[in-house]
Structure formats: C-alpha cells, structure tokens
Amino acid sequence: MSRRLTRRQTIAAVGGGMFAGCLGEPQFWDDPPSFDTAGLDTVLDELLPDRSQLIPAAFESAVAAQFVDRVERLLDPIPDPVSESTLPNSAFRKQITTERRAAREQLPTTHADHPPFEFAERFAAARYHAAVAVGTWAVVTTDGDPAAITDGTETIRSRVNQFGDTLPGIATCPAGGAAVYGSIERWLDVAERRTLTGSTTVRDEDDPLRAGRTVGQLERIQSQIEAGQYLQARYLETVDEPQPIDAALHTEVETLADDVEAWKQELYDREEDILFRVPDTEVFFDTQPVDENAPSLRLLSRAVRRTFEDIRFDPVVVEGYEPSHPATALCRTMLALARLSACEKLGTLIEAGEDLFPPDGATVDVARQEAIDSVANAAAADNPLRRWFATQMLPLFEKPEEILAAASATTREIVEAYTAYRWIQLFASETEAVVSTVSDGLGA
After folding, report:
1. How do the domains of the chain map onto residue ranges?
2. I need a surface site. Which of 58, 133, 214, 277 has the fewest CB within 10 A?
3. How do residues 211-244 score in pLDDT, each as one tens digit?
4. What is the pTM (predicted TM-score) of this model?
5. If you ran DSSP here, which 8-state letter would residue 27 be given?
6. What is the rounded CA–CA span in Å between residue 86 and residue 283?
7. What H or E segment, with its residue span, contains residue 97?
C-alpha cells in the first residue's frame, strides 16, 4: 500500500488542530460555485454497458419456461382485479396488487435478453414478489394456506447446506471458478447469514403484511437454489480440462486476509474491533483544503460508510473470520480492498483541493462517459474476475441515472450524480490492480 502516514502520525504532525477546527470551517453549500446546465439534456444519450457474461451458456428456453410457470402458478389464486368489495383493507389490497404487478414486470420478455446470472436474479425477484402477493392473500382470506405456498424454513436450510457442500466445484481455472461459484455462493451466504437467521416461519398471529413478505423470502431462496444448481451444471458443460479449485481459493483468501489486516493497521489508532466502528474519513487525507460538506468530502463519507458496512455484514476475511464459502469470500474481500484503495485515491484528490463540483453539464457528461467506458472495459475483459467486478459496478449507475432523468433535478442532486460517476471511474481503476494481484496468486 502507498499510505504516507497513519492516522496517529497525521494527528501528531498537525497537533490535532486540523480535526478540532473542522466545526468552524465554512460550509460548501453556503456559497457554492455557479453551475451551467447547458448540455444536460443529452447526458443520458449514451447507453449503459450490458451486464457481463460469466458463464458461456444461456438459460435454455424450457428451463426459463419452468421459472415463468412457477410465477404464474403462484399468482393464479388471486382474482384480478382485487376489488374493494372483495378485500376492504386498503393496505392488504395494495400489497397484493403492487407485488403481483412487480412479479410480472421482473419476468424477462425473452430469455436471450439477459446473461444467465441476471436472468436468475430476475426470476428470483419475480418469484419473491409473486409469493409475497399470494402469501398475503392466503393470510387475509380463506383461499389457501400461507405455510403451504413454499417449503418450510428447515427444509430450505437443509437444501442450502446440501447445495453449499458441492461448492466450489471444479473449474477451468481458479479465477473463472471464483467468478462463477462466487456469484452462486453469494445467494447461499445471504440466505444463511441474513434471511434464515430471522423469523422466517409464518404464524397465525403474524401481521399479514409481514407474513406475506416472509413467504416471499423463502420463495426467493428456493428460486436461487434451483437456478444455482442449473447454472452450476451449465458451467460444468463448458469446462474442458476441469481442475479442483478449493485449495487455491482458500490459500488466496488467507493472503487477502493479510491485506485486510494491513489496511486495518493503517486506519485505526489502536487494536480495536474493525467491525464496530467506521473510521474517520480524515484518515484518507493529511490536509483538507476544501470546505466542509464539499461534494468530494460527502462522496468519501458515503464510500467509507458503505465499505465498512459491507465489511461488517459480508463474508470479508477480517478478524479471523473463517469463510464457509471461499469463492464468495474471495470476491467480497476483493470488493472491499478495491473500495478501500478507491477511498485512498479520493483522499488524494481532496488533498489536491478537488471539491468535485462540476462547472457545467458538459463536465457531467464527460464523467458519465468515463464511468461507462471503465465498466464496459471490465465487462469485456478476458479475466473473469474483472467481468465479475463489472457486475458489481453496473448497479452504481441506478441513482445518478434516476437523478438526471428527472424533469427538475436540483443542482445538489446533479452534483451528487456527477460524484457517483467519478466514484465509478475511481473504483474501476482500483479493481484492475486488485484483480491482477489476485490472479497472480491464483496462478491465472
């Protein structure tokens, strides 16, 4: 790493005065620079990159039809429309109709439109929404049993464990296997560590809205298991010279754990639990020549908070964590390391006086184009881990695209969109170094 000073050294060098005086600094938005909106009307003309292909295979039409059929069978008991006379309670009626509509909106129109993992995620979302709708309907009417809509928690937990025992399997190479199996293991990890740890049993005394969502959560996991098993089989069909990758992944995960520990020593003053405190953003720069609440500082604050939330709740190898899913642990730890490096790069820009306020719409356009190019390059890369990173960067476009598509976005909102694009470009540049190091370690 290239950090020049630890936080303790920084505070000693400036006598702590920099941090003590922050409250007295001028606020950026008290007197912001002027912004010229010229050029904003064409900013969104360039299309976003397609999602990268991690498996050189597609969902077969017959299999896709089975997932669609499951959604329709779930929704079949619900009358259309659900009238006020049929269901007087407006909250129940709204959840049922809203979730039914969301289920059908998630269904792809053709199976060739989406890469396999995106396809699987859309089916999981569609089945979730459909199950929420019919689960709510079954609770508030006598038409069906909500507990019979999907399998129970223990049955699903057993399936998660059984499927997880087959992963990671064999692959063409460790990097390719990590990208594929890491994505599948991610579904299982979220199910084990989040969904199935809460209240996932439908009881008579449950609030109907919550009960419906519980049914939806269980259905989503079922869909992910089915899609995961199918994608695993499809991937194995493409593997010409299979090799086991478990040992290579575990070895590289241990190396990444050392990298995370090195960052921990850089970011914290003393031995403390990294999982329970987000470090101060000031550790990423030595001086602050920009006003408080400048867009660059706000971006850094959001990025640091998000990074450490994921370190806390994701299978990132920190604090002696022993991953049960090495492929997804490798991927999520790479993600954390790339974000930390991007935060450091942003800190360097702040030290140079960068407030990240765009003077005009053309500057926003350039930033968006650079972000698109960065993700497109990753999505088209030969290295499967770079393509995996592209799948993580694409969702970052959602909020800025929504802002710029609005009819009356404020200057603050436009600046937020601009900083989001700058972050994507910074983040993408750091993923290259992380992937290169990990690929070398895996022998890719």
Report:
1. 7-51+246-442, 61-244
2. 277
3. 999 999 999 999 999 999 999 999 999 998 899 9
4. 0.91
5. B
6. 60
7. helix 90-106
The residue behind tokens 């994505």 is: 183
For residues 132, 134, 137, 138, the Cα torsion angle rounded to the nearest 10 degrees is -110
Q: What is the pLDDT of residues 409-421, one digit of tens each?
A: 999 999 999 999 9
Residues, the chain: 444
Residue 314 has a CB neighbour count (10 Å cut-off) of 20
Question: Over the stretch 183-217, which tens digit does the pLDDT of each residue have?
Answer: 999 999 999 998 998 767 777 667 899 999 999 99
Asked if the peptide bond before residue 115 counts as cis, ω within 30 degrees of 0, the response is no
**What is the Cα Rg of the chain in Å?**
24
Closest CA to 285 of 337, 352, 355, 336: 352
Q: Does 260 have pLDDT greater than 60? A: yes
Q: Give every CB contact of residue 95 below 8 A, 6+ residues apart in sequence.
A: 132, 133, 136, 209, 212
Give CA–CA dist 136/157, Å, rounded: 23
Distance, CA of 168 to CA of 157 (rounded, Å): 18
Nearest of 242, 362, 344 to residue 303 by alpha carbon: 344
Helix (H, G, I), strand (E, B) or coil at 178: helix
Cα 327 to Cα 1, 315, 333, 436, distances in angstroms: 24, 10, 10, 17
